[in-house]
């Protein structure tokens, strides 16, 4: 289910389905930065500067906050010692949201800590002397980039930042008016009032260059005179960033019609300064304080909503006037733009967060316990680190790969490099380096690449969401032999440098000819190379494949290069693509492995499209981790359109029949106790009707709320198998599982490995090295063979080698299915089960050399089962398009298809899902579009009875089936 839909029912369901927090274990040697007045009373503000310095130097910091706590409650208990005095701290209850550096990072952290404490001795740091556990609210991995509005009262923000010793982007902690990050209103507004992303918060492509923006007292009249500033900030908040406003700046931004109203429907009324306050949602990172809190005066000390109004999302208020409800006398509030997500979500996809603080100016005097009017400065500093772009969840995820012919028979070679950003975050200052091997001479490069020392270098700039690029360089080869190319992508997130490499690509120069040379697939991040066979008509390539879509008679294939402006089409209706050019028609092949067209462009233009289409994840994005592209098999694969559209399908004219649930299966048909045969190659005996083979396709939602549903399916599967064995004559099965997006679900864990050294929530995920992914793992409709990430086995499943489905060689059907069906819960936040089902059985997935080759058989019926707890809002084409596509895969015979839907039931009377019920009219229409179909509620406690009752439908379809020919 998507927790980030701006749909109330989805938000409610997200909250109800959230699993309880669990504590992370820490070994002795972990560092603790206390944030309570017992130990950090004097160094409370400078402690934030220490955290910033640790992050800036690549040391991750964990923010420990006990879930459900009240103000001043204990976050965790630990035994430790002071790192300076060695004084013991025995079983102390740390409060106020302390910070933890894991013991594994302590050696890297200690030099930074000791240098900082030498300059700022008021800061206290402890070292754990015994193991302990703590709940972690945020994993901080980046020092955020920060911009300050020069609104005439920037001295307030400057005071807060100086108290914490947090510098600007040139490491100047004084934050002078000449700082490059001190932006005046005209710089924010940009040169036009029609383009809302041409101010200095953005680059030339409209991607944000700052993680955090703050305004302390910009005037309401100033906003009315320069509304473009507010428009630019609203556009800025359509990214995973954070905006803080204090005092009059709150109403300047929130109350401006039409660009404001970030958190409210109609803006705020100014409320009187409260003498006493209540505290809410004290387990929010924004709310972390310890000790007494005192409000301060000013032109806007607190805020109320107009009578009858409510915040766009509930749970926004953390400090409010005592005895009043949310929306009356509020002092400290935070929420996502337009209420897109609940405020306690760690991130919200493409939406940023807004925080408002009442009162003109807070003190920064210490000790904090004696200066309760300084607590507001703590709240301000909290917001710097709670911004999504400072956390593990907010890291950009980049696909990066290189390709070249594995063999050439002339002394020249072109090497291609592709990068793509498939997340909501922006990677700053991108640079690609391609090392030139000994004996190779640089000739030329595309896109402004230049030879610098022993490398070809491209400065690609900021890589924003959906941005991709294809780069190529040509080299002369001095003589026969092997030439090894390596590539590196460097970029910056916040203040921190990052890099991503690919596996080396080896090119053999053989003047005697390359006939029969195979092509391997390079992998990003040090994975393995996949094999393949090259054609005789030209050199094989180690490149990825892209392509068009097949028509009802096979259609044309098309490969796409990221950034091109056209799309290959064929047969039926084509989904849009970001780019691409036709490279192989029906019956045609391209040189070698078929991963790039002859003479045309970079080979991995496919990368931009299958990954970008609907691909971004809510909290744990989507890495195109390793991108192996082996086994292309001599034809171009699909590009997978920008919208994931289906093309080349021969329609059946549609059906109006509704699915029915048949009775449970009857008598034994003779399959026997030994179970079904899996593709044993029974010859066609010339039977006029009836089937001996069934191809089962399970389409399983991999989003965050699906853990229990996947377990339910796995538990119900053995009973379904037994019912099939006892009732259906067909005893030759294929079983394949696909998920509902085009993402590798291990991507979040891969990012965690790179920053934290392990994956929270999926400790069994292998980090050293991370698992290699193949192209088929990151395209829509590719069979699942090795699920990774939270909720999976984090290991390859017992699937026959070279196949992405279960067949005769599987020793234990139930065991193998249990492995592949637990697809995990780290998938995309936009499910598209209809598109996934249709693509899985399309020519571009089942054709020769493609991901699912061999799964779909002409003399078998097809049984499609969809399991999702969300409506299909991601499949872009009309429902009938997907119905037609699946029927076309079975030679236009709708009687050869059975569709079962375990889907939401909010569109039905008396839904099993109750208050969580989500209407699913689109999926209902899809299921009913097949004459042989049935539907059940995804909220059923046991899917077994439904699946077993569906055996009757399958049996009837098998009896009525007329094999082609």
Give a concise summary:
Helix content is 19%, strand content 21%.
Description:
- The protein has 965 residues and is an alpha+beta fold.
- It has 4 domains: 22-140, no CATH class; 146-394, Class I glutamine amidotransferase (GATase) domain (Rossmann fold, 3-Layer(aba) Sandwich), CATH 3.40.50.880; 398-612, Immunoglobulin-like, CATH 2.60.40.3670; 693-729 and 833-960, Rossmann fold (3-Layer(aba) Sandwich), CATH 3.40.50.
- It contains 20 helices and 36 strands.
- An 8-stranded antiparallel β-sheet has the order 1-8-3-6-2-7-4-5. It has an 8-stranded mixed β-sheet with strand order 10-9-11-12-18-17-16-14.
Structural class: alpha+beta
**Radius of gyration, in angstroms, nearest whole number:** 29 Å
H/I helix tally: 20
In total, the number of domains comes to: 4
Low-confidence segments, ≥5 residues, pLDDT <50? 1-20, 517-675, 678-687
């Amino acid at each position: 289910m998507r927790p980030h839909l701006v749909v109330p029912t989805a938000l409610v369901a997200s909250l109800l389905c959230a699993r309880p927090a669990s504590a992370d274990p820490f070994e002795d040697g972990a560092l603790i930065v206390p944030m309570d007045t017992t130990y950090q009373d004097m160094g409370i503000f400078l402690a934030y500067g220490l955290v910033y310095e640790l992050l800036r130097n690549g040391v991750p910091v964990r923010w420990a906050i006990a879930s459900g706590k009240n103000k001043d409650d204990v976050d965790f208990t630990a035994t430790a010692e002071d790192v300076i005095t060695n004084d013991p701290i025995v079983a102390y209850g740390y409060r106020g949201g302390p910070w933890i550096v894991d013991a594994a990072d302590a050696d890297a952290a200690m030099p930074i800590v000791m240098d900082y404490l030498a300059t700022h001795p008021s800061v206290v740091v402890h070292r754990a002397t015994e193991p302990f556990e703590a709940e972690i609210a945020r994993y901080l991995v980046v020092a955020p980039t920060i911009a300050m509005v020069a609104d005439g009262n920037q001295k307030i923000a400057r005071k807060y930042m100086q108290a914490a010793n947090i510098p600007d982007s040139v490491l100047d902690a004084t934050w002078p008016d000449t700082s490059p990050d001190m932006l005046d209103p005209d710089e924010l507004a940009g040169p036009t009032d029609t383009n809302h992303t041409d101010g200095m918060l953005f680059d030339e492509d409209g991607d944000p260059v700052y993680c955090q923006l703050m305004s302390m007292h910009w005037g309401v009249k100033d906003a009315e005179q320069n509304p473009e500033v507010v428009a630019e900030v609203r556009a800025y908040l359509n990214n995973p960033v954070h905006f803080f406003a204090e005092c009059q700046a709150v109403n300047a931004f929130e109350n401006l019609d039409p660009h404001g109203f970030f958190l409210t429907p109609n803006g705020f009324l100014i409320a009187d300064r409260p003498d006493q306050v209540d505290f809410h949602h004290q387990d929010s990172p924004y709310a972390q304080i310890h000790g007494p809190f005192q409000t301060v005066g000013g032109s806007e000390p607190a805020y109320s909503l107009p009578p009858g109004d409510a915040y766009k999302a509930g749970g926004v208020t953390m400090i409010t006037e005592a005895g009043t409800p949310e929306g009356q006398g509020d002092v400290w509030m935070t929420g996502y733009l337009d209420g897109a997500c609940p405020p306690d979500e760690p991130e919200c996809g493409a939406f940023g967060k807004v925080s408002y603080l009442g009162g003109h100016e807070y003190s920064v005097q210490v000790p904090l316990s004696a200066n309760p009017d300084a607590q507001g400065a703590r709240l301000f500093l909290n917001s710097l680190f709670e911004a999504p772009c400072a956390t593990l969840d907010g890291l950009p995820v980049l696909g990066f790969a290189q390709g070249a012919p594995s063999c050439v028979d002339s002394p020249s070679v072109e090497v291609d490099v592709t990068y793509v950003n498939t997340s909501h975050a922006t990677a700053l200052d991108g640079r690609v380096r391609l090392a030139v091997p000994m004996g190779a001479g640089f000739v030329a490069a595309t896109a402004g690449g230049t030879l610098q020392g022993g490398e070809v270098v491209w400065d690609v700039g900021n890589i924003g969401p959906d941005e991709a690029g294809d780069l190529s360089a040509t080299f002369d080869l001095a003589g026969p032999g092997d030439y090894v190319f390596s590539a590196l992508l460097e970029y910056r997130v916040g203040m921190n440098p990052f890099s991503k490499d690919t596996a080396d690509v080896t090119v053999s120069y053989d003047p005697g000819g390359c006939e029969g040379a195979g092509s391997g697939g390079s992998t990003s991040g040090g994975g393995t190379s996949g094999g393949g066979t090259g054609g005789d008509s030209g050199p094989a390539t180690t490149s990825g494949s892209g392509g068009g879509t097949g028509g009802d008679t096979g259609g044309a294939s098309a490969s796409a290069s990221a950034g091109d402006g056209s799309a290959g089409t064929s047969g039926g209706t084509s989904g849009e693509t970001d780019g691409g050019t036709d490279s192989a028609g029906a019956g045609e092949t391209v040189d070698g492995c078929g991963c790039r067209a002859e003479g045309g462009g970079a080979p991995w233009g496919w990368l931009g499209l299958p990954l970008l289409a609907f691909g971004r994840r809510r909290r744990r994005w989507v890495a195109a981790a390793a991108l192996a592209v082996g086994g292309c098999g001599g034809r171009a694969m699909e590009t997978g359109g920008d919208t994931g559209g289906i093309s080349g399908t021969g329609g059946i004219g549609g059906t109006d029949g509704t699915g029915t649930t048949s009775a449970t299966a009857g008598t034994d048909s003779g399959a026997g106790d030994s179970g079904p045969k899996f593709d044993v190659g029974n010859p066609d005996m010339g039977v006029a009707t009836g089937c001996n083979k069934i191809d089962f396709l399970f389409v399983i939602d991999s989003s965050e709320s699906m853990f229990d549903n996947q377990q339910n399916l796995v538990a119900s599967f053995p009973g379904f198998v037994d019912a099939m064995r006892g009732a259906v004559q067909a005893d030759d099965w294929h079983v394949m599982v696909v998920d509902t997006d085009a993402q590798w679900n291990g991507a979040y864990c891969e990012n965690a490995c790179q920053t934290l050294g392990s994956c929270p929530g999926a400790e069994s995920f292998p980090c050293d090295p991370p698992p290699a992914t193949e192209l088929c793992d990151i395209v829509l409709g590719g069979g699942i063979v090795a699920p990774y990430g939270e909720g999976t086995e984090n290991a390859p499943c017992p699937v026959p080698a070279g196949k992405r489905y279960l067949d005769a060689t599987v020793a234990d059907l139930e065991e193998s299915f249990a492995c592949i069906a637990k697809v995990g819960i780290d998938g995309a936040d936009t499910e598209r089960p209809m598109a996934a089902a249709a693509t899985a059985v399309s020519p571009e997935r089942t054709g020769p050399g493609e991901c699912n080759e061999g799964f779909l058989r002409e003399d078998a019926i097809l049984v499609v089962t969809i399991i999702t707890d969300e409506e299909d809002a991601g499949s872009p084409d009309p429902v009938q398009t997907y119905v037609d596509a699946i029927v076309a895969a079975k030679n236009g015979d709708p009687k050869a298809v059975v569709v079962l839907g375990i889907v939401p039931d909010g569109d039905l009377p008396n839904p099993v899902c109750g208050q969580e019920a989500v209407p699913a009219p689109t999926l209902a229409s899809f299921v009913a579009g097949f004459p042989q179909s049935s539907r059940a509620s995804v909220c059923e406690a046991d899917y077994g009875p439904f699946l077993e009752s569906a055996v009757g439908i399958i049996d009837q379809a098998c009896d009525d089936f007329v094999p082609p020919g």
